Amino acid sequence: MATTSSVAASSSAGTIDVPTIVSQLMAVERQPINTLNTHVSSYQTKISSFGTISGLVSGFQSALQSLTTGLQAFSATSSDTSAFSASAITTAVAGTYALNVSKLAQSQNMVATGQTSSTIAIGTGTPTTINFGAGKSVVINGTNNTLQGIRDAINAANIGISAAIVNDGSATPNRLTLTSTATGVSNGFTITATPGGDATVSNLLTTMTQTVAAQDAAFTVNGIAITSASNTVTNAIQGVTLTLKNLTTAPATLTVARDTAAISTALSGVVDAYNAMSNQLTSRSAYGNATTPAGALAGDGTLRLMQDQLRSIFTTAATGGTLTSLAQVGVTFQAGGTLKLDSTQLSSAMSNNFSDVTNLFSSASGYATRLQAWTQSVLASGTGLIANRTDSLNSTIQRYNDQISRLENRMTQLQKQYTTTYTNLNMALSSMNATSAYLTKQLG
Q1: Are 152 and 165 within 8 A, CB to CB?
Q2: Distance (Å, rounded) from C-alpha 63 to C-alpha 272?
Q3: 335-341 long-range CB contacts below 8 Å, 24 or more apart?
Q4: Closest CA to 339 of 386, 432, 417, 272
Q5: Per-residue pLDDT reduced to its tens digit, 421-437
Q6: Are 330 and 342 in contact (CB under 8 A)?
Q7: If you write DSSP's letter for every residue of 33-49 in order, what string do you get?
Q8: Is 0.85 topped by the overall pTM?
């Protein structure tokens, strides 16, 4: 009707507004395309929603893995942290150990006599081989026979010795120092010169004074004497790394125990990650009402399946121990479907029967085990619930886009057709108007 009115109005004026008429006609013709574009936008929103949910499921999966790792964790506590510190890995064994530290590992250090300058050549430049034991050596010649050159040659040789120049403020202040890069007797060194070299260079290095001797650490664990080339000791107590810091005057105590604090933190992380995921599953699947719009995935079968699977996992008891439900360790559901953790109840459960707590989460029927399997089934590339649903949505979008493409081609042809038709009509009307004007003039 709008087009007819426009034609009538245009005809009464003697010409037709072709662009306006064609535009109005095309607006009507494009309605199916607009509907398809709305569908495409809706499906793209669904895909975006599944992307958000995928990220939250992945976060939940990581939190579950942290809990599984935490259940195997041990803590190592020193009664005297000034004497030593300690850390433990999953292979540690719970127990108490008495430590006495009588020696700390040291690096060997040697100092040469002072030189007036660090850049003036020493000796004649005759090639001189300086040996440090164990097949380690450097050659000093006319290109590097200054104090700086000797320092740089030793450092560049990468032989486990660090060279430096120290200024002691005397008349001959520049003193070359050599230090083992690692502690322990086995990393010490001796300095000799191969005969035939420059005597001045040889004498400077072979007469260096030892200021600190290489030394192994010495300590006892429960009365057992142990030595170590390093102050970081990994093989004295199973699964425990000791860092020796100072000598002791009385035995210090090392306590190795289950790391319940790490477990509590990890389980709290699981609860938080689940709640973030659950809230999105709920809000995106919600049906709308008069005041609240529907979620982007309202009525989506994949989302309902995910929620049903989670409900089944949480309502199925674990087996193999005295603890069978999450409520027994302080994890309960709240109104709205989110979880809450009672840390006091969890701590009590771990204190009373740690093995059953581990079974509740990590056994074949444990909650963490089954929830991990669920996250894998949801996130699996190509075969997971989210991947399958996303592929289906993308296929539907592709079909819509193919239809849109065909319709767009049709729109192009229609627009040309309408433009030609109404342009020709305009020309006919112009001719009729001219004839009418001529006849009117003749009759008058």
Answers
A1: no
A2: 9
A3: 336/282, 337/278, 337/282, 338/274, 338/275, 338/278, 338/279, 339/271, 339/274, 339/275, 339/278, 340/271, 341/267, 341/268, 341/271
A4: 272
A5: 888 887 887 777 777 77
A6: yes
A7: HHHHHHHHHHHHHHHHH
A8: no
